[in-house]
Amino acid sequence: MTTIEAPRTPAPVRRPRGGVNWEKWGWIYMRASGVVLVVLIFGHLFVNLVAGDGVKAIDFAFVAGKWADPFWVAWDTALLWLALIHGGNGMRTLINDYANNQLVRTVLLSAVAISTALLIVLGTLVIYTFDPCPAGTAADLLPSFCPVP
């Protein structure tokens, strides 16, 4: 008699002996970053929407004033990095669970890693290079709070 395996039976996973257990650390990261993200997100929403005049007050001047304080620069940087890495790690888990073809899995994991890294770099550049009063700009194009050259 021939035994047929149940459909969708996952292939056995080969794990190298010794070394770092990346799945365990990914799982721990998701739990720890999730807790920190809840604090960061609700703090962000409170400051931007509740403490001020609501969504209608969020404009260029609001962001410029907020990012003039190093505390908020660090807060938004932590929020950006944790959220993107958390989301990328979640996508990695989904791809590992559902992509059965090794080539498809490799392509998808590479796309997630590249897009996550690119968004982290671009977002960090925006936060740290933001200048509300760039030198050499015509006075009529500058916001009202910038000193007139």
TrEMBL record:
Membrane spanning stretches: 32-51, 71-95, 107-130
InterPro entries (UniProt xref): SQR/QFR_C/D, SuccDH_FuR_B_TM-su
Main subcellular location of this protein, as a coarse class: membrane
Coiled coil: none
MF terms (GO), sorted A to Z: metal ion binding
Assigned keywords, A-Z: Heme, Iron, Membrane, Metal-binding, Transmembrane, Transmembrane helix
Subcellular location field: Membrane
Entry GO terms, CC: membrane
Full protein name: Succinate dehydrogenase subunit D
